[in-house]
Amino acid sequence: MKTHAIARACLLACLPVAGWTALSPAFAQEGPPGGDAPSRRLDRVEITGGRQSDNDLRRKASVAKQVYGRDELDKYGDTNVADVLKRLPGISMVDGAVRMRGLGNGYTLVLINGDPAPPGFKLDQLDPAQIERIEVTKGATADQSAQSVAGAINVILKEPPRLSQRELRLGAGYNIESPRPSGTFTLSEKVGPVSFTLPVSGFMWLNRQELDLRRPGTDENDQPVVAAQHAQTRNHGHGFNSSPRLNWRLSDDETVTLQGFAQRGEWNSDTRVVNGGTYNSPKLDNSSDNDGTWQMLRANAQWSKRFNDTQKFELKAGAQNAKASWDNRMFNAVTPVRAIGGNTDRGLTQAGKFSQLLGEDHTLSVGWDLEWRRREETRTTTVAGVGQLPAVNGEAFTARIDRRAFFVQDEWEINPLWSASLGLRSEHVATTSSGIGVDVTNRSSVLSPLLHLNWKLDPKGREMVRASLTRSYKSPEIGQLMGRYALNSNYPLETQTNEELAPDRVGNPLLKPELATGIDIAYERYMAGGGLFSLGFFHRNINNLIRNVTTLDAPTAIVPVPRYVMRPTNISRATTSGIEMELKGRAGELMPIFFDPKTALNLRSALSVYRSRVKALSGPDNRLDQQPPWSGTLGFDYRFSGLPLTVGSTLVYTPGYSTQQTERQTLDQWRSRQLDFFAQWTFSPKTSLRVSANNLAPLGNTRLTTVASGDYTYADRGSRTMVGMALEMKL
């Protein structure tokens, strides 16, 4: 006990200052993270013989959520989490950012073990072998950040097992030229009261994208012409990540958890262009070589103490350091352009939560959540070796965020059929942007009342109705607050004017957070054979909507001529609504007329219909940016009788649509289709081989951007099928 007391004292001294910078990010919990509905008793953790299914975890949750465990994560042999997410109902990946309910980047909260993912965290570089499950939550809760207008995706990392384990996963993916390898090795041990797991993943990638671009312009004789350009981009790089975790059970009532996360990599993107002729206008892209690095480190510590059967306290702290660098070179015989820069994100987090059981019906929780972040960015741009924007070239710009949140939450079991979760969260955010000619402090407060109701139509919870009233918000990204002015690379000389479709960029330190008031209603039915049917409706009222707006700015001390500039702006209010349906299960249970109950065929489908309206813009296409009118998913997997072989496929389809982005600019997005296939051969309970093909029969990503003057940009980005192979072994 003396050793335990010393360890406890040391930990409590270290937590407030989060002095764990040598490790990397982490977010830890006692017991199974992100688990079931809150218990009416704060009991000791008991080891049970059975493992709860994804449907069991979903059914017992206090708020509406979808749960995807190892079966779903392993199915296609994916080498990164982004490929897993894009097949899940209501989720899409756009330009590397995850989106829910068709809403754009920033509306979806990404969590790691229940805590917000740190800056620099890349989902497309995280191996699914490091993950226990993924939980998709539709409504905000008081004890988590309210920055979840669309919902939250909680990536739960693997915990140390109760027994020693060695796991090895080797893979290779092919897109062009030659396969690129990947691999993950996981070492897990338990020594007395201490258990730990150490996964290490390495990866490489290589792919190619084709781009066909068309714009109206003039030829060398000043005659009207449609300028055409074909570009080919070769992307390649490598990296690694690791998420070590250590659990130390000081006693039956007290545990310490340490977790790190590290990610580092290098990337290259080389583009070669061929023009369809010689044009006086417009200015088209030049060939370029771009490369860079990224690195993200984070460490988290958690102390959890159960004082008695009715009281529990959790204390957490974390430190993070993320940085990136880039070197972009644009080739032009007359004015070659080079931009060199980088950014650094540093942060500290500290949180606590006290839970008290009140009688047999209520569990009251109170707590706090603090965050301090600082981002520093530098950029140097030269044209033919001459520096541009001398007032800001090479100078550091910074943005700081100070966030303080306090919450109270009551989990109330009204009776065996009714339960409720009531919460109130208050968040205060202060942002500061500083640099040459910029020194702005902005403060905002968000009060988020939250109510979740569950009504079981039968005592076992096989059929239920959920309803939620929530207040959430979308905070401006820290990069949007940076006041640095960046010239468009096609018009890099500060003394020349540019075009409306090739604007400069600058941040807006005065941005306010978007506030959203919403309602969610869902019906869920869990079938006896493991099938599931759900039908839900949601609506959000959004204030202070942020959208990029392009204006023609007058000359300034920094830029001496008029130029078009794009900046994020709070432009309007907006509304969005949707209907979401999901159906999955064994074919014999879903369609007993057509399939024998013993048929080893699983079916799954989902359909989401969305509508939105930005009130400051005229219709009919004044929808939220990049929200499609609907999207659908169909899939199956089948296990052959007498053979250790399972095959399956998933189709995700989104129709084309138009978006009125501003009063002057419209975006037309063509349809998209993602067709994936896998086959798994199980040699033994410890060894299996998966072969997969992602994006079969690919469609191009085609967009048409039009402005009021009649100018437009037509861009068709081609894609290719990715073929992969993964061998998994438990050593």
**Briefly, what CATH class?**
Mainly Beta
Radius of gyration: 26 Å
Secondary structure tally: strands: 38
Number of domains: 1
Please count the helical segments. 5
CATH superfamily: TonB-dependent receptor, beta-barrel domain
CATH architecture assignment name: Beta Barrel
Mean pLDDT: 86
* Ends distance: 36 Å
Low-confidence stretches: 1-40, 43-49
Largest β sheet strand count, sense and barrel closure: 31 strands, mixed
Q: Helical amount among residues, as a percent range? A: under 10%
Keywords: Cell outer membrane, Membrane, Receptor, Signal, TonB box, Transmembrane, Transmembrane beta strand, Transport
Pfam family, one: Plug
Membrane topology: Multi-pass membrane protein
Domain TonB-dependent receptor-like beta-barrel: 249-696
Explained architecture:
This protein is mainly beta and 731 residues long. It has a single domain (2-730), classed as Maltoporin, Chain A. It has five helices and 38 strands. The longest helix is centred in the first third of the chain and has 13 residues, at 2-14. The chain has a 31-stranded mixed β-sheet that branches. The two termini are 36 Å apart. Strand 30 and strand 31 form a beta hairpin. The model is unreliable at 1-40 and 43-49 (pLDDT under 50).
